[in-house]
Amino acid sequence: MGQVTILGETTKNPITLMGSRAGICWGSDITDHEKNYKRGLDCIAAGHGRVMEYVNVEMVLDGYSARVIREWYTHLGGSPTRLQASTRYIDYDRFAYVIPPAIAQHAQAKERYESMMQQISETCSYLEQSLGIAREDAAMLLPLGMQTKIVDKRNLRNLADMSRQRMCTRAYHEYRAMFADICAALENVSEEWAYLVKLLFQPKCETTGYCTEKRSCGRMPKKEQAGDNFESAR
Fold it and tell me: Going by C-beta distance under 8 Å and a sequence separation of 6 or more, which residues neighbour residue 34?
């Protein structure tokens, strides 16, 4: 589907960096990388999430729908920022778009869906090239299903918090897929990232031990059921 590119400004050894930042405030020796690494792990185990905000993540998200990127924008915290491909300057003639799995697997739905996208593309081109309509006005026809590209900057704490909601089975399917792509890309940055992704990135039911959603997928018991099971085990 889409592609995640981790940029070079991303912190390569996040655990070591966290330990170093904490060590400064604790009056510890921060010249020893091994001690910094162990201190960073201690911070995570103790729930000192603020040091996670020093871990920088910069990436390019390319080929995902404008719809899912709009949802991505809503998860603020820790001063994330982003730039998105412009509909004023980029030529979207014959734009690429995302086809939801439910439509892609249904022959008639897929044919109608692709036909509509083709009509939008042709109309945008006609308005701009034949009638002289400004691109920024013709682009108003573009759907949320079109593919887009953004440059994103945020920190580890924000991403870990985001995973609680977006790795949930109830989350929008494209968002879950995009977040899985982000996890895979970060795991390839370094051994420390691979460890953190497995340790910190998980749906909220994994951290609470029960499901907080009104309509559960059944992966974990509801809070009431979890409480009953706990009482029964006592």
Answer: none
Give pLDDT tens digits for 112-131: 999 999 999 999 999 999 99
Q: Cα separation of 105 and 138, whole Å? A: 31
Please list, in sequence order, all residues whose beta carbon lies within 8 angstroms of the beta carbon of residue 141, skipping any fewer than 6 positions away: 120, 123, 124, 127
Strand order from edge to edge, sheet including 81-84: 3-6, 56-65, 147-155, 81-84
Bridge partners of residue 57, in order along the sequence: 154
- For the stretch 65-90, pLDDT in tens is 999 999 898 887 667 788 899 888 88
> Is 63 buried (19+), middle (13-18) or exposed (0-12) by CB count in 10 A?
middle
Q: And the tokens for 221? A: 């018991």
pTM: 0.87
Contact 12, 37 (CB under 8 A): no
Distance CA 39, CA 21 (A): 10
Phi, psi values for residue 59, rounded to 5°:
-155, 160
DSSP for 17-53 reads HHHHHHHHHHT---S-HHHHHHHHHHHHHTT-GGGGG
Residue whose structure tokens are 């995570």: 44
Note whether 14 and 159 are within 8 A (CB).
no
Structure-token pair, residue 93: 């003639």
